[in-house]
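Structure in, sequence out. Go:
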């Protein structure tokens, strides 16, 4: 697999065509399959495009922190002046002003980082959405929709929290720490070594558990992904779940995913709990040591009381933010876990790989070529899903007009042929030609603009009836819409509905009957007036009257367009000009219904055993097929 990242790391374009493929954080030259863990540099790359905001936020934080570091020095001066009985009002006012300005600067810095976090999430989400819509179908087939949804939702939110919560803490802790350490070293090097010693021990301990926290986070996120996927599965098939009385089983199954996320979360909490006391011991221990050693040094005159107070304040500045540092580091570990799952999607190869060179434009149909090639032709096509061969050496062609029926047993490879014609998959061997051009290098969008598809289960999209009808041709006129509605006998339904074409069809079109969904899907394909219409079992859900009428419609359409129909019904087969018989992935025979009945025993068996006679009528061909 190859990576198609834009080296700039920015999401490019609007997602139209291959130039719109998002890159987000993937790097060129990386093997997307290697699953390499992203590192801190990958996290920093997330901030690309937000440089100014991050810069401004850093500047505010640096100034705020510096103002904070001034405070112990002023306090030291204050104590000295109080001891010397000198005026302190100006110093107190300055200290109060410093407090207020520091708080205001830090609040502004945090706001800017929150905005940055939001824009990182927006960029990643847009990148993920665009990538998922362009990804090769064979890579999408093996993945669970719910898990992908959770990556777009939960994982990106995790990264937002990391950006907003950890960077400012890291910067504050680092600046405060370095500043405080320098000033402590200046005040009393011996006492500084005492504090530093306890902190180094604590830091080693914390570093040890961080890796464990990251792994647990990844496991927890995988659990959330599985939970979303399983819940999506159950809700998608809720009627089947209820009918099978499987609610408890599904609840158990999804509960197990929740438990897995819980277990990983608890493991992370356990590791985190080791860090808390370690920090406390380090903090309390270093204060105790500072007080003890400080008392000795004040008594022997090596240090003044004001220096001891300032040193203690700086020690607070150095030690207290360690809790924040731990928080920031664990947020980063969690962010890295999420980034890995996000990059895993962003690196999926897209359908039209830019590295394969510019796609070949599909020539526009010639007005009237002298000897036009067939509209669709399969030449010695072989295809396997993973290692399972499905099509072997398949050759046949679809002329520019007429109805070609594809028949075969269930699993023979009929839908796979439709997928190859639509370029959802590429053949492993042989060629698929559209209008005489091998579609291998062709931009799939050019090809699909000339083909209409009615899928096997006629899926509708959430939205109105009109949205669904004009999906492939948004600019269709009212007249065109009415015309296709008439063709597929949907006029009456539209009149019956209170909101007509503006009626919501529900999720996946569930507010319509199976037959209505099927007819809407056919109308949708016809509205764009494609040269070739691929229909995967178009009449399976229709009643006898509609089945007959739709078959007549198909015949009419086939007078001026090419139709390739995967047929399970005798009525469709009988209406076909030519029938291609698929037998275990090979073309077994080809001809008209009558020819095949007379000459091909496999076809005869198919008509009796597999093809459905028209509903409400006796099977007319059984007698013919009988030996
Ligand atoms: N995405 C996929 N991944 C792996 N195997 C697949 C995939 N799609 C289909 N298959 C397998 O390929 C074979 C051919 O499937 P296909 O859907 O083309 O058959 P079909 O002739 O259309 O069947 P039916 O008439 O039942 O719809 C089947 O054995 C099927 O299990």
């Amino acid at each position: 697999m190859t990576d198609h990242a834009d080296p700039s790391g920015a999401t490019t374009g609007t997602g139209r065509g291959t130039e719109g493929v998002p890159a987000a954080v993937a790097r060129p030259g990386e093997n997307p399959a290697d699953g390499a863990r992203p590192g801190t540099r990958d996290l920093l790359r997330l901030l690309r495009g937000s440089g100014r905001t991050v810069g401004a936020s850093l500047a505010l934080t640096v100034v705020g922190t510096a103002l904070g570091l001034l405070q112990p020095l002023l306090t030291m001066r204050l104590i000295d002046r109080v001891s010397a009985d000198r005026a302190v009002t100006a110093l107190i006012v300055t200290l109060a002003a410093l407090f207020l300005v520091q708080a205001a600067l830090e609040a502004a810095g945090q706001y800017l980082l929150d905005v940055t976090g939001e824009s990182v999430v927006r960029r990643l989400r847009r990148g993920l959405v665009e990538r998922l819509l362009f990804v090769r179908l064979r890579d999408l087939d093996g993945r669970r929709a719910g898990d992908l949804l959770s990556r777009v939702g939960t994982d990106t939110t995790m990264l937002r929290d990391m950006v907003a919560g950890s960077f400012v803490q890291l910067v504050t802790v680092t600046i405060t720490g370095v500043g405080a350490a320098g000033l402590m070293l200046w005040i009393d090097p011996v006492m500084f070594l005492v504090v530093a010693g306890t902190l180094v021990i604590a830091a080693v301990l914390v570093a040890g558990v961080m890796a464990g926290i990251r792994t647990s986070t990844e496991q927890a996120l995988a659990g959330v992904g599985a939970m979303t996927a399983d819940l999506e599965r159950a809700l998608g098939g809720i009627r089947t779940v209820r009918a099978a009385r499987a609610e408890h089983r599904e609840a158990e199954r999804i509960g197990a995913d929740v438990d897995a996320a819980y277990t990983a979360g608890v493991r992370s909490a356990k590791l985190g709990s080791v860090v808390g006391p370690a920090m406390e011991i380090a903090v309390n221990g270093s204060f105790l040591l500072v007080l003890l050693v400080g008392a000795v040094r004040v008594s022997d005159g090596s240090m003044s009381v004001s220096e001891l107070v300032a040193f203690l304040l700086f020690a607070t500045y150095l030690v207290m933010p360690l809790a924040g540092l731990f928080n920031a580091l664990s947020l980063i570990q969690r962010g890295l876990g999420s980034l890995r799952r996000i990059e895993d999607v962003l690196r999926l190869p897209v359908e039209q790989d830019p590295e394969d060179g510019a796609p070949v434009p599909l020539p526009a149909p010639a007005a009237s070529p002298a000897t036009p090639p067939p509209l669709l032709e399969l030449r010695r096509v072989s295809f396997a899903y993973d290692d399972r061969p499905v099509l072997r050496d398949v050759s046949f062609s679809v002329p520019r007009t007429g109805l070609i029926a594809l028949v075969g047993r269930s699993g023979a490879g009929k839908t796979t042929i439709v997928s190859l014609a639509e370029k959802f998959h590429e053949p492993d061997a042989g060629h698929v030609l559209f209008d005489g051009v091998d579609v291998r290098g062709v931009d799939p969008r050019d090809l699909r603009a000339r083909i209409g598809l009615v899928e096997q289960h006629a899926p509708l999209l959430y939205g109105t009836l009109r949205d669904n009808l004009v999906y492939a041709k948004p600019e269709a006129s009212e007249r065109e819409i009415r015309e296709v509605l008439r063709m597929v006998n949907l006029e009456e339904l539209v009149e019956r509905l209170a909101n007509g074409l503006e009626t919501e069809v529900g999720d996946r079109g569930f507010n319509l009957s199976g037959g209505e969904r099927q007819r809407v899907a056919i109308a949708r394909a016809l509205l764009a007036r494609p040269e070739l219409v691929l229909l995967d079992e178009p009449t399976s859900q229709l009643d006898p009257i509609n089945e007959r009428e739709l078959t007549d419609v198909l015949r009419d359409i086939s007078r001026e367009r090419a139709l390739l129909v995967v047929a399970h019904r005798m009525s469709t087969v009988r209406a076909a000009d030519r029938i291609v018989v698929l037998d275990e992935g090979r073309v077994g025979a080809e001809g008209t219904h009558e020819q095949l009945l007379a000459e091909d025993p496999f076809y005869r068996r198919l008509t009796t055993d597999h093809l459905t006679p028209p509903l409400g009528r006796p099977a007319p061909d059984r007698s013919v097929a009988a030996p």
